Amino acid sequence: MCGICCIFYDERTRSKINADDVCCNSRLGNRGPDGNHVKSVSLPGKLSATFIGHVLHLRGDNMAIQPAQDCQGNILLWNAEIFGGVQVSDSESDTTVLLDLLTECNTDDEILSIFSKVEGPWSFIYWQISTCTLWFGRDVFGRRSLLWHLPDDVSDMFGLSSVQIKPKKFKEVPSIGIFKMSINATDELTRYNFMLYPWKQAVWPGTLDKVRDDTNILAHLYSDEINKDLITFTVSPDIDVPSKMPLLNKSMPPDGYTIPDFTDDISPTDYLQKLLTGNDYLRTLSKQLTSVLLDAVKTRVLNQQMRENIPTNAEKKLEVNEDRVSECDDSDGNYIVSSARVAVLFSGGIDSTMIAALADKCIPEDEPIDLLNVAFELKPKENNQKKGRKVDVPLIKKWDVPDRLTGYTALSELNPNRKWNFIEVNITATELQEARQEHIQDLVYPLQTVLDDSIGCAVWFAARGTGLCGSGLYKDSRMKSSARVILCGMGADEQLVGYSRHRVRFKYVFIYS
Question: What is the pTM of this model?
Answer without folding.
Answer: 0.82
